[in-house]
Amino acid sequence: MQVRQIERSSTDFQQPVDEAAAVRAVADALPGRSVREIVELDSGLFNNTYRVGTDDGTFVLKVAPRAETPVYFVERHLMERERTIAPRLAAVHPLVPGYLGFFEIDGRHAFLQHFVPGRLWHAVEASLTDAENAELWRQLGEFARTVHSVEGDRFGYPEPFVGAPTWAEFIARNVEGLADDCRRLDRMHPEVEEFVRIFPRFRERLDEVTTPHLLHGDLWPRNVLIDGEGAAIRIAAVIDGERAFWGDPLADWVLILYGVPAAFWDGYGEDLAASGDPVRIDVYKGMNFMLNIVEAERFGASDDEPRRWLAAVNDRLRRRH
Q1: Of 60, 85, 114, which marks where a domain is finished?
Q2: What is the spatial distance between Cα 248 and Cα 277, in angstroms, rounded to a whole number?
Q3: Is the pLDDT of residue 321 over 80?
């Protein structure tokens, strides 16, 4: 039995788990199996991810950050939210790996999933042909359409969050929460202040969305495993559903933030970026650019680019009012 973890600085966001506690928790969660190894994978930017090898199959272990780790508003209770939404996600599409159970390791939330062999699309995207990438985008569009077809009864994040009665109320909570993050991190730039002032003018447009739909929340090549090649290339799994929520399909950020190829919309069946309300799209973009600004602090990056993007959003919203 061996446990291998990535060496990390004490100041890194992701921190190693207690190895003895991990071994006990995994053994309890997989009764009747002999655990042979727990190996951390260099993937993901939030949870720690491990491959668990046993005498009867391979599994994936994910462990949430320590309770005292500072997170952004939209990241609060991520794994608890995934625990709530997991049955819906797994039931709606076979590309979502099944969950075996949720538990704690030394006070940190954790869960096990079935391991799906494959290549991370993001890691090999540049080496694929245009036709292969187009086919994967088409399949991802089909996946998104199926997930978005599921309707709920409240807007927002799953429990332990309290759902919002209206879509505008959920967006307002998110924007204010992100604004608090900006204040805490000394990133309350003029562009952020202006967006916080402007967006409430469009609450009526937001409330044209009256039906909550299930959104994956992080639907991009970093969360897609693929298999095969050429005409036989396919998506093997769509992972990392912890950011799923209920709302307007246009708000599933990958659809509108940086643009997806036409093949995605072919699979989806409708180009929402072209047919959707441009005001709502700009509000969603502004909210996501606020997140990019605070994320720059965690990754030690400049926030100049998302500030410029947010300024452009503000300019368009100002002209539309």
Answers
A1: 114
A2: 11
A3: no
